[in-house]
Hints:
The complex is a heterodimer.
Chain A: E1 6-13, H1 17-26, E2 31-37, H2 44-55, E3 60-65, H3 70-85, E4 88-93, H4 99-112, E5 115-119, E6 123-125, H5 140-148, H6 155-161, H7 167-179, E7 183-188, E8 191-196, H8 203-211
Parallel strand pairs in A: 1-2, 1-4, 2-3, 4-5
Antiparallel strand pairs in A: 5-6, 7-8
Chain B: E1 2-7, H1 16-21, E2 27-32, H2 36-52, E3 55-60, H3 67-83, E4 87-92, H4 98-111, E5 115-118, E6 125-127, H5 141-152, H6 160-167, H7 171-183, E7 187-192, E8 195-203
Helix pairs in contact in B: 3-4, 6-7
Amino acid sequence: MTAVSVRTLICTFGFNEKKVFAAMRTIRYNHLVLVAGKDVLERNEYKLMVAIEKKGGGTVETVTVNPFDFADCYNITNRAIRKHMAGGDVVLNISGGTKILADAAILAAFQNGVEAYHCDETTVKLPVMKGVRFEDAFSEDDVRIMKKFDEGDTVKSLAIKLSGLSDASLRKSLKNLEKLGVIVPVLEKGEARYHSTPGHRDIAALAERCTR
Amino acid sequence: MTVLFGTLGFRSEALLPAIKATSDVEKVVFYHDHHDSSLKAKSEVCSYCETLGIKAVPIPVDDAFDFLQLAKEMKQDVRRYRREGSEIACFNIAGGTKLMSSAALLISILEGIPATYVHDRTLQPFHLPLLRIKYSETLTPKQREILRYLIDHKNSELTERELADAVGVKKATINHHVSKLVEKGVVTLTAKKGDRRAKVVKAEPAVELLLE
């Protein structure tokens, strides 16, 4: 018996079911996941979509987000992608839902290196490189540092926390994290102290994503 | 020169807080469409910048719903400013149509530019968790050369053999590179009409955004 490869289509969804239908027509899939705001679930457009998918022999898995909260949309879409990547291929359609939800889904697609499309009247395939993950930019030492990182750390304080990591490796990784825009050194009382950048306040969560 | 990029829709409040929150901005380059409300918002942004002594560069877009075209224009502008020695502090993607915002985010990811999203209600800029990496650098120089050639000859039906001759490598070498690019989802291989043994290589249209 040969294993059937599962291809999950994850679609952002707002009030316009036609955008999801466009993706369902264009993209081959065998499992459909919708990422949508809670209030969408009671709407006829959503019910119609579930019914159509059922007629085609499938089911709809729905994950809900606050469609006006970027972090929520991003974290939940990321989680859905990772869950389904474990069981096969994932494809994303970002044409539905709010601007924030679509943008969060684009970022999650690049983050995880999954195929992504904007399906509407025309279909645009985004230039995501499959299998290329943002996390690949970090070395093992970078991740070790991120796991132990506290705001205001110095080279010395990190060296104490990361026994076994040579001074050269520590400095090399700090340089890399700075280059990637994750941390920034600030001169305080004659000493360089490292702080997270505004886009990466939760460095521990970033480190966690890198180790999965 | 420090430049801030942004997208603008009907509300200048989607851009002004990002200008306020970014230090040492000398120029604001922003995209808007021709709708009356967008033109009004444009005037408000220009007036705000003039008062603060910041140069405003409004860029009208022909079609605020043409995702690929918007992304191409933004990429060209970003690269032009960089070539001229400007530092791009940030791309605020909160304003404009959903496709303007998504195109701006795409360019921020591909070019490694920090991006912000001004929250609709709080009017506080939220910093997106992007990395400062140039996405195309995850390709090898040879892969970039092959993609460049394919994009420059997008109307030709190039076989792997012809592509190998064009970029000056052996057929086996091109097969290796092309299979890696197929894995990444940036090129497709299809059987040539009339000669099923030969394969035609095509780059996905949006791949152009990755290249110089």
